[in-house]
Write a structure and sequence with these properties.
Elements: H1 3-29, H2 43-76, H3 79-88, H4 94-127, H5 135-166, H6 171-194, E1 201-203, H7 208-219, E2 227-230, E3 241-244, E4 251-255, H8 256-261, H9 264-279, H10 282-304, H11 308-312, H12 321-331, H13 333-362, H14 365-378, H15 387-393, H16 399-411
Parallel strand pairs: 2-4
Antiparallel strand pairs: 1-2, 3-4
Helix pairs in contact: 1-2, 1-15, 2-4, 3-4, 4-5, 5-6, 6-10, 7-9, 9-13, 9-14, 13-16, 14-16
GO molecular function, one term: metalloendopeptidase activity
Active site: 274, 355
Family: Belongs to the peptidase M48 family.
Length: 415
């Protein structure tokens, strides 16, 4: 093992250990419900929420431990040179060989993930009353997801491999430009063509809810064109709402479970929050951050792609562009891990700001609090997550912190 191998191995072990430690602390914290939220769960519901968290955490531990163990076996039993030999055995050029190698790795990963996905859906989610997915829907979702991934991902990956194979020192800039265009295009393609492959989107029917949403959108100058209700209940009892796309492709989507189980004011408060993300430029800023991060990533990738010690760390006898992409992603693991802390913190700050915007512009502070409580209750959320678990995994702040901020915002005078 060379120094690069030691860095990657240490980073993988440290990351796994950190996440498992955070999970253990999170389970311990779930035993205590904050006094301000002690009326949210009955005794039976509180025990059920703890059992749900424990079940998910334990399966997560098994999955992460097995995943790491199998990867290390694959690595140290020289699985990458073996995979390289298989891919080259087809006799293709370097770009197609790279695509074959990625396809083989993707197939292995899918096979590994499949039993955990089945268990999570049909055992854990079923046991706690969330699952409404049939086996047929589950299978069709996997097939559609695979086909979409191949249709979209293959040309993009082929382009990246071709640029780094043939374009020389400027390859990283070309890759950055192509991926940036791809990221922008996804905001049009996904809500318009991809998401309808998996769910049915029905325009929100005329009535009090739609009238109030449109009236609110007018008061804040939000150019709302499309409001859809998605059949989320087809797969789960959990509720949500989200904003997608931009320009004429912009749409707001409400889960039918949200519309059916919450009051008009509660739904409106949730939408005010989602519109707040747009008005406060969170979506645009997030896209800019993603684009900048991608450029930095490709630049460092260009420096490491043909690094002999990086390939030697994985027992590769020759330097291959496709292998360099895989190995660099592993070398970059500690950087991504550390970047996750500020990015998650930034996301949580955005959620506070969107809450404040909703309160200021709609005046529905109590409806927002009530909606958040219902969403957490119906999903059996942990009401007392550990700070380390929050820092690592939560893009949204804990419920109690959000409620306190909302109440504070309601009492703060604004010009």
């Amino acid at each position: 093992m060379n120094w690069i191998a030691w860095i990657i191995l240490t980073a993988l072990l440290a990351q796994t250990l950190t996440h498992m430690t955070a999970d253990a602390l999170n389970l311990r914290g779930a035993e205590v419900i904050p006094p301000e939220l002690d009326d949210l769960y009955s005794t039976e519901e509180g025990q059920k929420a703890k059992a749900y968290l424990k079940a998910k955490t334990q399966v997560g531990w098994i999955e992460s431990t097995l995943s790491l163990g199998l990867f290390l076996l694959f690595w140290f039993l020289k699985g990458f040179p073996f995979l390289d030999g298989l891919a080259k055995g087809f006799g293709f050029g370097p770009v197609l060989t790279g695509l074959v190698a990625f396809a083989l790795l993707g197939a292995l990963k899918s096979l590994f993930n499949l039993p955990f996905a089945l268990y999570g859906t049909f055992v854990i989610e079923e046991r706690f009353g969330f699952n409404r997915t049939t086996l047929k829907t589950f299978i069709l979702d996997r097939i559609k997801g695979m086909l979409v991934g191949v249709a979209i991902g293959t040309p993009l990956l082929a382009g990246i491999l071709a640029f780094f194979q043939h374009a020389g020192s400027g390859a990283w800039v070309m890759c950055w430009a192509v991926v940036t265009l791809f990221m922008l295009g996804v905001n049009i393609i996904v809500p318009t063509w991809i998401m309808p492959l998996f769910n049915t989107f029905t325009p929100l029917e005329e009535g009090d809810l739609k009238s109030r949403i449109m009236a609110y959108a007018d008061t804040i100058g939000f150019p709302l064109q499309k409001i859809f209700v998605m059949d989320g209940s087809r797969r789960s009892t959990k509720a949500n709402a989200f904003f997608s796309g931009f320009g004429k492709f912009r749409r707001i989507v409400l889960y039918d479970t949200l519309v059916n189980n919450q009051s008009t004011e509660e739904v409106l408060a949730v939408l005010a929050h989602e519109m707040g993300h747009f008005k406060l430029r969170h979506i645009r800023n997030g896209l800019f951050i993603a684009i900048a991060h991608t450029g930095i990533l490709f630049y460092f990738l260009s420096l490491a792609l043909t690094l002999k010690p990086l390939h030697a760390a994985f027992f590769m006898p020759t330097i291959e562009v496709y292998a360099g992409l895989i190995f660099f992603s592993l070398l970059y693991t500690p950087v991504e891990f550390l970047l996750g802390f500020p990015l998650q913190a930034w996301s949580r700050a955005n959620e506070y700001q969107a809450d404040a915007y909703a309160v200021q512009t709609s005046g529905l502070s109590e409806a927002l609090v009530s909606s958040l409580k219902t969403l957490h209750k119906t999903s059996l959320s942990n009401l007392n997550p550990h700070p380390l678990h929050v820092a690592l995994n939560h893009s949204h702040p804990p419920l109690l912190q959000r409620i306190r901020k909302i109440h504070q915002e309601r009492l703060t005078p604004h010009p």
